[in-house]
Amino acid sequence: MYERFYGLRELPFDLTPNPKYLYLTAKHREALSNLQYGIAKRRGITLLIGEAGTGKTTLVQTVLASDAFRGAFCVYVNNPSLTRDEFVEFLARAFGLSSHACLSKTALLLELEPLLRDRCERGIVTALLIDEAQVMPIELLEEVRLLANIETATDKLLPVVLAGQPQLAEKLNDPALRQLKQRVALRCDLQPLDLSDTAAYIAGRVRIAGGDGSRLFTREAVELIHLCSRGIPRTIGVICDNALVTGFASDQRPVGWQIVRSVCEDFDLKLPGWQPPESARRPGAAPPAAAPGSVADADGRFALAGEPMFSLFTRRRRFSFF
Question: For a 10 Å CB count at each end of the chain, is N or C smaller?
Fold first, then answer.
């Protein structure tokens, strides 16, 4: 709808996961490496913790779609709010076991272990990845621990990834799950983006869509997007997409802080006590003076701590969708 208005080839903030939009902060690169290492080397249980919208599901799907695991057999559970019997049935069907294994945990284990041993001997990685694991009841988490215990003298046969919100980490502190917590071989925590990463994230998404981020959003707009989203990539995308639609409807380029504030109010996002520079609030005023620790370039745009707001994307070409 607004692509031509902003000179874009496509919508930059479409919420459909797309590997070409991959943006990795240091924490996201670490998490992705841990997931790949934990599965490939059969390290037992890998724990991925992060607030909603920080990119857990995207990282898991990136691992599943990567060339390194093209020949692997990975079972992905994205809705683990199941009873014990439903969990047994799901695993039996996902691993291609008999109908009898769907009805009996004993039959499931008797069929699953030989299958895992055979695949291990043939060099085929088999893994279980559970998303939204914070909703799993304690008894199912205990079942996962027992599945992760299936092993040979030298290898774990079924590496497990548990991805969930911080409540999962709290749940693992329950004394009933102490054995599961002891078996976590790798753990990574995803954090919200800081201001510079937020700017790079926005600029990268726009660049890949064929545009110039510095021409779509003002500096004040980006600062307000960061504050109102609290650095959550999913929320950043929602704010930016709606701000571009509003800017298109009102024929405004670039999108300023006033539009961003209106969008955030519409979404009932609590606005912090932020005010743009006085000169930015006066129509037709000269560019505001640089803030402490920042300088202005030849076009009057700001550099934060000596780094242009949108220049990070020229050096960091690791843009990702969360």
Answer: N
Q: Which residues contact 85 (CB under 8 A, 6 or more apart)?
A: none
CATH 3.40.50.300 residue ranges of the chain are: 26-190
**Contact call for residues 144 and 128 (beta carbons, < 8 A):** yes
Amino acid (1-letter code) at residue 193: L
Q: Is the peptide bond before 17 cis (omega within 30 degrees of 0)?
A: no
pLDDT of residue 303: 38
Nearest alpha carbon to residue 186 among 47, 10, 314: 47
What is the percent of the chain with per-residue pLDDT over 90, rounded to a whole number? 66
- What mean pLDDT comes out for the span 259-271? 91
Q: Name the packing angle between helices 195-208 and 233-249 (round to 10°).
A: 60
CATH topology of domain 193-315: Helicase, Ruva Protein; domain 3 (1.10.8)
**How far apart, in whole angstroms, are the C-alpha atoms of residue 117 and residue 123?**
10
DSSP one-letter string for 133-163: GGGS-HHHHHHHHHHHT-B-SS-BSS-EEEE
Read off the pLDDT of residues 226-254 as tens digits, 9 standing for 90 and up.
999 999 999 999 999 999 999 999 999 89
Q: Which two tokens stand for residue 245?
A: 């639609």
Residue of 235, 195, 200, 217 lying closest to 319 (CA atoms) = 200
126-130 and 22-23: which strand pairing?
A: unpaired
Residue 48, SS3 per DSSP: strand
CATH match of 26-190 with 3.40.1030.10:
no
Spatial distance between the Cα atoms of 156 and 204, rounded to a whole number of angstroms: 39
Distance CA(322)–CA(320), nearest Å, equals 6
45-62 core/surface letters (b: 16 or more CB in 10 A; e: else): bbbbbbbebbbbbbbbbb
